[in-house]
Write a structure and sequence with these properties.
Blueprint (H helix, E strand, L loop, with lengths): L2 E2 H7 L5 E4 L8 E2 L1 E4 L11 E6 L13 E5 L15 E5 L5 H30 L4 H12 L3 E5 L4 E5 L8 H9 L4 H7 L2 H4 L10 E4 L7 E8 L2 E9 L7 H21 L8 H11 L6 H10 L7 E9 L6 H15 L4 E4 L2 E8 L7 H13 L2 E5 L9 H17 L6 E3 L4 H8 L12 H13 L3 H10 L4 H8 L3 H15 L6 H19 L1
Parallel strand pairs: 4-5, 5-6, 6-7, 16-17
Antiparallel strand pairs: 1-3, 2-7, 8-9, 8-12, 10-11, 11-12, 13-15, 13-16, 14-15
Helix pairs in contact: 2-3, 2-7, 3-7, 13-18, 15-17, 16-17
């Protein structure tokens, strides 16, 4: 079974070498290896020869050949200038026997990987289940295997029943899911730093919360994670060969899952596509939208909200997004949760005109905090053809929250509409021009004299000019409040019976808050 020259080069990468390749090492195939001797003539282009530098002069070949040279004496820089040779030069502290041992192990592993590939493909042809494939994988790798879905819930295992001193495995096998501490640790951006993007199936080493090292292969379909296959380094060390076999097993599992739908088959794929089409405004005919709503079985309550959830301070990896999708599907008990533009978008239908009651909102807030997320929530709407417009509201709520430095985990567009309107004027005019003269006058006076007239006016208007309530809120005496209100009237000639003036003052306060954040 031929091996690519590139793989042989990589086997010596960690050692001080010099390499010259005439052509593409990713397509040059090597079928065997041999220690060079005079009997080796004529030399074959599909063999790699191990030779001492002192014997190079003996080589006579006009064809491209492959050499690993042990530099037992200095080599002339021009020795291969006229020769189309591929060669790897090792320093003199190497022995030919050492090189041959490395090649023997490399070709043995390569043969093993080929045999395992055939065995796994034959198992697929025989219709092996997920469990049978894991049992076969355990026989091959001789270390325990655990398969969990994208929400880190248990799917199957092999060899895990006899594990001791590994609480996380014991927890998963007994409870059926991974605990929150572990889930958070593997979903952070830090864990992504150990991923090798060059591998066909990404492989991650996990340590820290485990008593043994664990190699995790990502089971992917079209770059979408289906599951994670965990190989515990329990009985013996995991070799590079084992790592490649784990990659192959992940690919085989992905094919099996796609065919049999044993795990992670999206039962709501049609509704996902439908909701995405609404957000992309590819569906806008009201009758067609209502027809598809019936076709896809979307039995929705009358009241609807759009919710957009973003991950804060982390990369939105596919793994994390799919994990959170399942988390929020379970929390809201809704299948109308989709991935859109790197964020989660939820179509949330409710019986009441409130998105959730106080207790449910507290739970939602806690879930967002646990997963380092922020949610934008739209105004209420009643027809699916308004979904796109209200998605924009929820999306804008998140952007406004960032811009205005809001600290809450739940940002309601209802509470940010005025700010959004004000900010939309920035392209037309200087929004400072929206500030009422009364507000400008009192702000300048407060800054100059250290008084609190503007704060007093805002509180007085906010509490419907109720002096008792306002004094209590400001923690000042009733007579002190009366004095301040009289002084404000003298300074500004404000008419507290003019609702238009009062609205403009409140609008001015919003403008000042925005300017303080910009």
């Amino acid at each position: 079974m031929a091996m690519l020259l590139k793989k042989i080069i990589q086997a010596f990468d960690e050692y001080p070498i010099r390499t010259t390749i005439n052509g593409n090492s990713e397509i040059i195939e090597i079928e065997r290896y041999e220690e060079y001797s005079k009997r080796s003539q004529p030399l074959s282009a599909t063999c790699i020869y191990v030779i001492r530098a002192s014997m190079i002069a003996e080589i006579t070949s006009n064809n491209q050949i492959n050499l690993i040279i042990v530099e037992d004496q200095p080599l002339s820089p021009n020795i291969f200038k006229e020769q189309p040779f591929n060669f790897i030069i090792l320093k003199k502290d190497w022995e030919v026997a050492q090189v041959m041992a490395v090649l023997e192990k490399l070709f043995a592993d390569h043969l093993r990987i080929g045999e395992v590939s055939v065995k796994l493909l034959q198992a697929c042809q025989k219709g092996y289940s997920i469990q049978q494939l894991l049992d076969l994988g355990y026989q091959i790798l001789n270390n325990p295997l655990l398969l969990v879905d994208i929400s880190l819930c248990f799917v199957a295992h092999s060899g895990g029943n006899n594990i001791e001193n590994e609480p996380l495995w014991e927890w998963t096998l007994s409870k059926g899911y991974v605990n929150k501490e572990y889930a958070r640790s593997v979903m952070t951006e830090d864990s992504q730093s150990e991923i090798s993007e060059e591998k066909e199936v990404l492989v991650i080493w996990e340590t820290g919360l485990l008593n043994h090292r664990q190699l995790v292969g990502r089971v992917l379909k079209n770059n979408r994670p289906l599951a994670y296959l965990k190989l515990l380094e329990y009985h013996h060390p995991i070799s590079p060969c084992d790592e490649e076999i784990l990659v192959i097993l992940c690919n085989v599992l992905a094919m099996n899952m796609i065919d049999s739908s044993d795990i992670y088959h999206s039962t709501n794929a049609l509704s996902d596509t439908f909701l995405t089409a609404l957000l992309n405004q590819k569906l806008y005919d009201h009758a067609a939208i209502e027809e598809r709503e019936r076709m896809y079985g979307l039995k929705l309550y009358k009241n609807m909200f759009a919710v957009v959830i973003k991950i804060d301070n982390r990369k939105n990896t596919n793994d994390r997004l799919y994990y959170l999708k399942r988390i929020f599907q379970n929390f809201f008990n809704r299948q109308t949760v989709i991935l859109y533009n790197g964020q989660l978008v939820i179509l949330l239908d409710t019986l009441t005109e409130e998105i959730q009651n106080e207790r449910e909102m507290a739970s939602f807030q806690s879930l967002l905090e646990e997963n380092d997320c922020t949610a934008g929530v739209s105004k209420i709407f009643y027809h699916l053809y308004d979904f796109c417009e209200h998605y924009k509201q929820a999306y804008n709520a998140l952007n406004l929250g960032d811009l205005l430095k809001k600290t809450g985990r739940i940002l309601n567009y209802d509470e940010l509409i005025i700010s959004h309107m004000i900010l939309s004027f920035r392209g037309e005019t200087n929004i400072r021009n929206l500030i009422h003269p009364v507000v400008k006058t009192l702000k300048e006076l407060d800054q100059k004299k250290g008084s609190n007239f503007l704060e007093t006016l805002i509180a007085y208007i906010k509490h419907n000019q109720d002096t008792t309530v306002t004094a209590k809120i400001l923690h000042i005496h009733y007579n002190t409040l009366k004095y301040r209100i009289n002084r404000i009237t003298e300074i500004t000639n404000i008419d507290f019976s003019d609702n238009e003036t009062l609205f403009n003052i409140q609008l001015s306060v919003k403008v000042n808050e925005i300017l303080d954040c910009l």
